[in-house]
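General statements about sequence and structure are easier to judge against a single worked case. For one protein, we set the task of working out the structure tokens from the amino acid sequence alone. The sequence in question and its structure tokens are set out directly beneath this paragraph.
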Amino acid sequence: MKLAVPPPLSPGDAIFVVAPSSPFPLEHFWPGLAWLRARYRVRMSAGALEREGYLAGTDSRRRAELARALADGEVRAVVAARGGYGAMRILDEIAWDDLARRPRWLVGFSDVTALHAMAWRAGVASVHGPNVTGLGRDASPAVRAAWLAAVERPSVAHAWRGLRMLRPGSAAGCIVGGNLTVLHAMAAGGRLSIPRGAVLALEDVTEAPYRVDRMLTSLLLGGHLAEVSAIVFGAFDRCEAVAGGPTIDEVLEERARAFHIPVLAGAPFGHAAHNEAFVLGSRVQVTGDAVQFVAG
């Protein structure tokens, strides 16, 4: 499956910052927003700062904001302020067909995985990478450079090398994926559709190893991994072992044996400090300990 790649961003382009999930700490948000404003024309609604429990405002507010951003003819990218929880609550009221007719970048990670999954269902590539709160003072130059490369030079070849081979082999396909917990929830809600032959990228945070085992096993038993050509694990940050049980690395190694496809681990994306942006929808080749993003 080949996904439509939105036009690359250029300095001065309009981007729209949205808050489709949880509220966010302003001390992390403002520096990230300032960094974006130094390069792009940033649009944002005042409602993005709202808080309603664990959500950034009501479902109707968040839904209307995302719909407005996607409908704005000048906007070249829609960038999430933060992940958390809540994006799944507004999925069904968004006109994803409009995104397919006028592709523009959706950028973010964590809970934003739900939006990415709907984008690739609509046939549109998107960027898995830091949200606005992850682009502030704590972001390294390398993380910021990768973010800019993903949105401004999405077709340039690059590679992740030196990964851990949990199950060796070779594969090629369109890379999709994101947060394991969100993808598992999307499968439970009947909204997960993984392209045939895809390379599936997975990461998570603060999940006990047995819960990661459960989610991977559930996706396997549910047939969601049946046509995946390879799996690439990113960071599984703060996924501590429970009561002397297996570590997260041991769980990933054990589950890899059940997939019968190439499996690599240690890719530089996820909730760890180094969260390298990449284009969901890129064609990649998995060979040995490397994932090569093919140019073009």
Observations:
- Residues 59-71 form the longest helix (13 residues).
- The chain is about 30% helix and 25% strand.
- The chain has a mean pLDDT of 97.
- The two ends are 15 Å apart (CA to CA).
